């Protein structure tokens, strides 16, 4: 009131102090400030208490308040969140007095919409891999757009060869005698699925690139198993949220 503030925005946990606040305002003869309350945003399975997060910092278990595993603004910005995505998320929530418990996938969905416009695409495989032997194919480098909808982002080198790798989960969806679309390559005809003790150990296939019908085909991410394009192991660091 003394500083000229007309409206105060604060979370509902301070509601019980409103009567005390207005009592002081009345006794001191000051102009009343309008208090607008809104609920806190809680993220499921996430520690948001500054006191508890301080313990991690003081114990040296994290790099600091901007550690990408931390649920702080600085932390999620290092993790890949954009300022635009964060603003869009906050605006979409609006203001409400109801307590909100939200999953993290929603905030990252807003971020995905932002970076989708300019993020280059690369291929990664995880988990158990299954080799696919493609007959009649030689090792060679081709090129593909880094972004399927924006040529200006540039091109990337894609290696093809007689042996490529796919994820075991994708291999389980393959059917003999049907095409599978290998992204940035084309249709490949699945000739035989080799199993051992009920487990897929390899797949035999042949190129069917002349067939441009990609409707209703299984879309696969893959990597050529070649020394000319060695893979890079990546370890996922899970958060402490």
Description of the structure:
With 241 residues, this protein is of the alpha/beta class. The chain has 3 domains: 7-38, no CATH class; 44-117, Glutamyl-tRNA Synthetase, domain 2; 129-224, Beta Barrel (Ribosomal Protein L25, Chain P). Helix content is 22%, strand content 28%. It has 6 helices and 13 strands. The strands form 4 sheets. It has a 7-stranded mixed β-sheet. A hairpin with a 3-residue loop joins strand 9 (179-182) and strand 10 (186-196). Helix 4 packs across helix 5. The longest helix is centred in the middle third of the chain and has 12 residues, at 104-115. It starts with 6 loop residues before the first strand and ends in a 17-residue tail after the last strand. 9% of the residues are buried. The mean pLDDT is 92.
Enumerate the strands of the largest sheet in spatial order, edge to edge or round the barrel. 12-9-10-11-5-8-13
Largest sheet: 7 strands, mixed
Beta-strand residue percentage: 25-35%
Q: How big is the Rg? A: 27 Å
CATH class of the largest domain: Mainly Beta
Multimerization state: single chain
End-to-end separation: 39 Å
Q: How many individual domains? A: 3
Helix-and-strand structural type: alpha/beta
Q: How is the CATH topology of the largest domain named? A: Ribosomal Protein L25, Chain P
Per CATH, the architecture of the largest domain is Beta Barrel
């Amino acid at each position: 009131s003394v500083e000229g503030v007309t409206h105060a925005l604060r979370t509902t946990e301070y509601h019980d102090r409103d009567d005390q606040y207005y009592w002081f305002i009345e006794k001191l003869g000051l102009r009343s400030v309008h208090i607008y309350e809104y609920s806190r945003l809680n993220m499921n399975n996430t520690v948001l208490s500054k006191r508890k997060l301080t313990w991690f910092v003081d114990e040296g278990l994290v790099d600091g308040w901007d550690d990408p595993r931390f649920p702080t603004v600085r932390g999620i910005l290092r993790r890949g969140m954009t300022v635009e995505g964060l603003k869009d998320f906050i605006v979409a929530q609006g203001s409400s007095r109801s307590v909100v418990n939200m999953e993290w996938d929603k905030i990252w969905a807003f971020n995905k919409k932002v970076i989708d416009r300019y993020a280059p695409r690369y291929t990664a495989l995880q988990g158990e891999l299954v080799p696919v032997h493609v007959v009649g194919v030689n090792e060679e480098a081709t090129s593909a757009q880094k972004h399927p909808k924006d040529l200006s982002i540039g091109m990337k080198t894609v290696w093809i060869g007689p042996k490529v790798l796919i994820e075991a989960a994708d291999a389980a969806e393959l059917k003999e005698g049907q095409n599978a679309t290998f992204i940035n390559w084309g249709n490949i005809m699945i000739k035989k699925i080799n199993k051992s003790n009920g487990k897929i150990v390899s797949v035999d296939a042949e190129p069917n690139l002349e067939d441009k019908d990609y409707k209703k085909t299984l879309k696969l991410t893959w990597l050529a198993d070649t020394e000319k394009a060695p893979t890079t192991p990546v370890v996922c660091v899970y958060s402490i949220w």
